[in-house]
Amino acid sequence: MSEPSGPPPAISLQALVREYRGRGTPLRALDGVSLDVAPGEVFGIVGRSGAGKSTLLRCVNLLERPDSGRVTVLGQEVTRLDESALRAARRGIGMVFQHFNLLSSRTVAGNIAFPLEIAGIPRAEREARVAELLPLVGLEDRRNHYPAQLSGGQKQRVGIARALASRPRVLLCDEATSALDPETTEEILALIRSIRDRLDLTVLLITHEMAVVKAVCDRVAVMEAGKVIEEGRVFDVFTRPAHPTTRRFVSEVIGHVVPPGTVAQLPAPNPGEERRLLQVLFAGPSSTRAVVSEASRRFGLDLNIVSGRIDAIGREPYGLMALAAYGPSPAIAEATAWMRGLGLDVSEIAEDLA
Ligand SMILES: Nc1ncnc2c1ncn2[C@@H]1O[C@H](COP(=O)(O)OP(=O)(O)OP(=O)(O)O)[C@@H](O)[C@H]1O
Ligand SMILES: [Mg+2]
């Protein structure tokens, strides 16, 4: 198989395994995870609690050492570095935490400058960097405030500025918005996207919320029990989820295509005819009503629109419609093929899943 060509990945994880050994049987937090994150991407990792997301993220900057597998960041295989080389490599990787982890005895400016102090950067340079970062995260007027005087969103802005202090090219975010209300979450996600654009960063972001993925990510990997069970462009994963777990995640955000209880209310097919539930996905503007009525005429079918909605992921609009098709089985198959020929993505929904 040939790899798609393009720039080398900013982050490449190959066959990562990480076990925690306690008294009982060892727990495989990572069970052979491989992932490539392209430069400039906001890449999401989503999964339920305990799926292994934080373990994975900590393996990228080797806060956690994998038992086996390779981690390559910006072309450097970090799993081969000794401690001092690793410390230098870590400066190229910023990290943002769920609970901000700010020093309560230091001001906003003092918190942002802290990693630069640790790295031995001279005072004048530190101050210049802080002066650049404050407007970037919208905190010019909070320079001398203490964490206790800040809202959650402001604290996270400090956390982000601190993560950016050493001019990293990769930013890792572990549930960076999970402690925030929905409105503040939106602001912080917008900030993450804007710094990605302005600073040419690659962002690896973990979350248990598919809404966060929808709002901010370009691609996503879904984790379950230490494995990646599905991966792809956010648009594709949302519109055509393959794994049942992914389907559940997606439906939490965009709802079920067929509202629960719908099937029970549908009339039974006439003797000798079939009833099929079809999902029709169209990307971009499309006059689906006209398609439905024409398909009905051409193939002699009874086509009922059971549900429909129009939404957008990123800037890509899409529509999703469920149809109940009644008629002879070959006619339904022909109509499906005809709609596919028009560029629509048509799939059958099993009635027990509807
Ligand atoms: N230091 C540790 N010692 C033992 N087990 C651990 C340790 N850290 C994590 N685990 C276990 O490894 C598994 C994966 O944990 P991890 O923190 O990576 O999950 P997560 O997906 O980040 O979950 P959450 O959404 O709750 O943060 C869990 O079963 C967890 O209990
Ligand atoms: Mg976690």
Automatic annotation (TrEMBL):
Positions of the ABC transporter domain: 11-250
Gene3D superfamilies given in the database record: 3.30.70.260, P-loop containing nucleotide triphosphate hydrolases
GO cellular component, one term: plasma membrane
Gene Ontology BP, a term: amino acid transport
Transmembrane regions listed in the UniProt entry: none
Alphabetical UniProt keywords: Amino-acid transport, ATP-binding, Cell membrane, Membrane, Nucleotide-binding, Translocase, Transport
Molecular function GO terms recorded: ATP binding; ATP hydrolysis activity
PROSITE patterns, A to Z: ABC_TRANSPORTER_1, ABC_TRANSPORTER_2
Function: Part of the ABC transporter FtsEX involved in cellular division. Important for assembly or stability of the septal ring.
Protein name as annotated: Cell division ATP-binding protein FtsE
Source species: Roseomonas indoligenes
